[in-house]
């Protein structure tokens, strides 16, 4: 058995009919040149022959009940996996476009995973126009975060278009680490003594840094500094009660185009991402007569996973930033975002990794407690939505000769937070995925249109 850590246990505790806690990934591929008509059928049958042999794909909860998930969350290896339940083949009425694909993925992402089984599904989707097909994977957030999932995905892909016989995701697990010396060997004893000393020292430093971070957070809230505090955002239309049905919308931009804007405005690429999201939300809320006087705030996950760590579970910090939605002028909006993100980054950079993890739990605690006690959507939110930016492959990737042309990450929404925006970079493009509650946010796909308008407006101002 493997004990579930505190942060991952919260995702399990938050699981409900209205708020399934799985994340997902959508990849769109183009058929190889000269591929036979049976290519996808043959590929599906071939992949199904691979047994599930790696974590997290072979793990299930030892106790799937709410009490079991809350009090004794542990992973055990499932020795009898029904591959037909987890691996599925779907087809769109040909020729299927982005809208039809989005509708299908919206439905698939709305349904819960079976807590009695390993917490994942994989879908092969055919019928897309222009010789394309898609893969959609969903897996519980307690098993993987955005960066960990991206690293696992990259291990089933290849930059070589001629490579064949490639394995499906459920065969690929975290990379094996170097074997540690025996605890009883001289080297092992020295390692344990060194580790214990470093832990004691690190704990003292973490407590000191965490205390300083809390003081700066409180001081900023009292004196109106640029550091955005929890509960500073308004109780907006994004922060009402949600239903179980989801809607997915996508958009993409050239990274070169966005970096050009970042360079001209002395901003980071992430600042431009937040500008596009904030601007799109401002326009959307204006259209629905729901724009708040206070600026919306975003919780922004920050990867703290070591470069050589692609293990299971969640490893992230979080910062809170303003989206500048109270500013009508694009330049002023971007400046407000830049000021808040710089203050938030300064806060995190002064802490060691262990303190960042504790700080994240502290910042997220009100958010999590709201969900656990059914208060989400009934009280003021800790922040209005989550916006993530996950690095992906920098060059074109292939799967058994099929080129991946697009990829989109799909995250979670919870009570009191009806929208999540996640971005991933791939082959010179930044792909945006908007996941929202269908009931709370009608015509949510217009966010992509408003984002386009915001980008053009900033470019015009900088001419």
Helical content (DSSP H or I, runs of 4+): 25-40%
CATH topological fold name of the largest domain: Chloramphenicol Acetyltransferase
* Count of alpha/pi helices: 12
Q: How many runs of DSSP E, i.e. beta strands?
A: 15
What's the short version?
Helix content is 37%, strand content 22%.
Structural commentary:
There is one protein chain. This protein has two domains: 2-171, Chloramphenicol Acetyltransferase; 201-395 and 402-461, Nonribosomal peptide synthetase, condensation domain (Chloramphenicol Acetyltransferase, 2-Layer Sandwich), CATH 3.30.559. Helices cover 37% and strands 22% of the residues. The protein has helices at 6-13, 39-48, 66-71, 83-86, 98-110, 146-154, 186-223, 255-264, 269-287, 330-349, 353-372, 446-461, and strands at residues 2-3, 22-30, 59-61, 74-77, 87-96, 120-128, 132-140, 246-254, 297-303, 316-322, 385-390, 398-399, 402-410, 419-426, 429-437. A hairpin with a 2-residue loop joins strand 12 (398-399) and strand 13 (402-410). Mean pLDDT is 85; it is low at 195-211.
For this entry, give a set of tags.
2 domains; 15 strands; six-stranded mixed β-sheet; Chloramphenicol Acetyltransferase; 463 residues; 37% helix; 12 helices; alpha+beta
Which secondary structure elements does this structure contain, and how are they paired or packed?
Blueprint: E1 2-3, H1 6-13, E2 22-30, H2 39-48, E3 59-61, H3 66-71, E4 74-77, H4 83-86, E5 87-96, H5 98-110, E6 120-128, E7 132-140, H6 146-154, H7 186-223, E8 246-254, H8 255-264, H9 269-287, E9 297-303, E10 316-322, H10 330-349, H11 353-372, E11 385-390, E12 398-399, E13 402-410, E14 419-426, E15 429-437, H12 446-461
């Amino acid at each position: 058995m493997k004990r579930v850590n505190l942060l991952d246990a919260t995702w399990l505790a938050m699981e409900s009919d209205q708020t399934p806690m799985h994340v997902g990934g959508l990849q769109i591929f183009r058929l190889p040149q000269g591929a036979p008509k049976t290519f996808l059928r043959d590929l599906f049958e071939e992949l199904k022959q691979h047994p599930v042999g790696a974590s997290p794909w072979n793990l299930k909860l030892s106790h799937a009940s709410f009490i079991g998930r809350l009090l004794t969350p542990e992973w055990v290896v499932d020795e009898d996996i029904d591959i037909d339940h987890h691996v599925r083949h779907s087809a769109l009425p040909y020729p299927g476009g982005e809208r039809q694909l989005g509708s299908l993925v919206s439905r698939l992402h709305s349904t819960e995973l079976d807590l009695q089984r390993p917490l994942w599904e994989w879908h092969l989707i055919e019928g897309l126009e222009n010789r394309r097909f898609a893969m959609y994977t969903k897996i519980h957030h307690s098993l993987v975060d955005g960066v960990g999932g991206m690293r696992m995905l990259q291990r089933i892909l290849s930059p070589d278009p001629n490579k064949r016989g490639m394995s499906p995701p459920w065969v690929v697990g975290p990379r094996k680490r170097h074997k540690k010396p025996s605890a009883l060997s001289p080297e092992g004893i020295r390692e344990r003594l060194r580790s214990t000393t470093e832990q004691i020292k690190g704990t003292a430093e973490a407590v000191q840094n965490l205390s300083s971070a809390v003081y700066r957070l409180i001081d900023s809230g009292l004196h109106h500094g640029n550091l955005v505090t929890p509960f500073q955002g308004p109780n907006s239309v994004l922060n009402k009660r949600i239903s179980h049905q989801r809607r997915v919308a996508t958009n993409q931009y050239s990274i070169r185009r966005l970096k050009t804007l970042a360079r001209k405005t002395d901003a980071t690429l992430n600042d431009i991402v937040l500008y596009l999201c904030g601007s799109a939300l401002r326009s959307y809320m204006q259209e629905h007569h729901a724009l708040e006087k206070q600026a919306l705030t975003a919780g922004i996950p920050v990867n703290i996973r070591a470069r050589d760590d692609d293990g299971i579970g969640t490893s992230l910090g979080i910062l809170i930033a303003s989206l500048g939605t109270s500013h009508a002028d694009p330049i002023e909006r971007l400046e407000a975002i830049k000021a808040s993100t710089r203050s938030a980054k300064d806060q995190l950079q002064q802490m060691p990794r262990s303190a960042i993890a504790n700080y994240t739990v502290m910042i997220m605690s009100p958010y999590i407690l709201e969900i656990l006690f059914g208060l989400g959507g009934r009280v003021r939110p800790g922040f209005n939505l989550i916006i993530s930016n996950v690095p992906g492959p920098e060059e074109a990737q292939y799967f058994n000769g099929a080129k991946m042309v697009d990829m989109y990450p799909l995250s979670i929404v919870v009570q009191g937070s009806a929208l999540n925006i996640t971005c991933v970079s791939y082959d010179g493009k930044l792909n945006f995925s908007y996941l929202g509650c269908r009931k709370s946010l009608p015509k949510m796909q217009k966010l992509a249109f408003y984002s386009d308008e915001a980008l053009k407006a900033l470019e015009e101002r900088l001419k």
